[in-house]
């Protein structure tokens, strides 16, 4: 059995678990804590350290993958939509490695979720272009083409019509805060997915995030040409993907100036 630890840092919660990378199954219980108020770097690092402390009983030497809700380039967090602005430009991977005294693999949270779906879930062996979106505190996105992950797509922040930064209108957090009915929310999502459809012509949409367990309430209300399905791994996708990437390597090319373009994550991808 090949094991790795995945830690999924979100704007609202931080989750972790030990994973079997071959089957994609959780080997430990899922440990969950609230994201500290303000989302400051040191506070988040402390929570991750304590989650790891609990998991380490199971696997002291397992590789660790950490995913985070920001653009991640060369180990640095380059944005901060739902966490402290101090993350912008921070050498985050290094910060975690020093605090945990271990090497980690550090990636965007939606990329981790998309990678997990392509390895173990709804995007596995889909021959074409998959757009994974996570509807949570914000809207995360991952672009997967024939099992190859194109990192750092930030499609939650697009402007549609007069609506600037669409996640501010249509994330699950906004649905909860404004107490939108499923129908009202689905109308906003209809516009969102229609726009993505027009821009990308995907073969499949996958909808993740905690709310995907209520997919029956809102996905049938959408009218799209592209099939749209809930994430199979539900809310564990971030943990599973971070753990899998820790083992397979995020494959980022760090030296050639093209590091943001493609992670060579998957040997199955054919050359085009
Ligand atoms: C962030 C993304 C993240 C998404 C989901 C957005 O606000 O910009 O990087 O993937 O939220 O957490």
In the CATH hierarchy, the third-tier topology of the largest domain is known as Nucleotidyltransferase, domain 5
Number of domains: 2
* Largest sheet composition: 6 strands, mixed
Question: Would you count the extended β strands for me?
Answer: 13
Measured on Cα atoms, how large is the radius of gyration? 17 Å
The CATH H-level superfamily of the largest domain is ATPase, nucleotide binding domain
Distance between the termini: 33 Å
Percentage of β-strand residues: 15-25%
Summed up, the helix count is 8
Question: What does this molecule look like?
Answer:
With 272 residues, the chain is of the alpha/beta class. The protein folds into two domains: 3-109 and 243-250, Nucleotidyltransferase, domain 5, CATH 3.30.420; 112-235, 2-Layer Sandwich (Nucleotidyltransferase, domain 5), CATH 3.30.420.40. It has eight helices and 13 strands. A hairpin with a 2-residue loop joins strand 6 (72-73) and strand 7 (76-77). The longest helix is centred in the C-terminal third of the chain and has 19 residues, at 182-200. The structure holds beta-D-glucopyranose. Residues 10, 69-71, 79, 81-82, 108-110, 134, 136, 138, 140, 154, 156, 167 line the site of beta-D-glucopyranose. Beta-D-glucopyranose binds at residues 10, 69-71, 79, 81-82, 108-110, 134, 136, 138, 140, 154, 156, 167.
Features of the shown structure:
single chain, 272 residues, alpha/beta, Nucleotidyltransferase, domain 5, 2 domains, five-stranded mixed β-sheet, 8 helices, globular, binds beta-D-glucopyranose
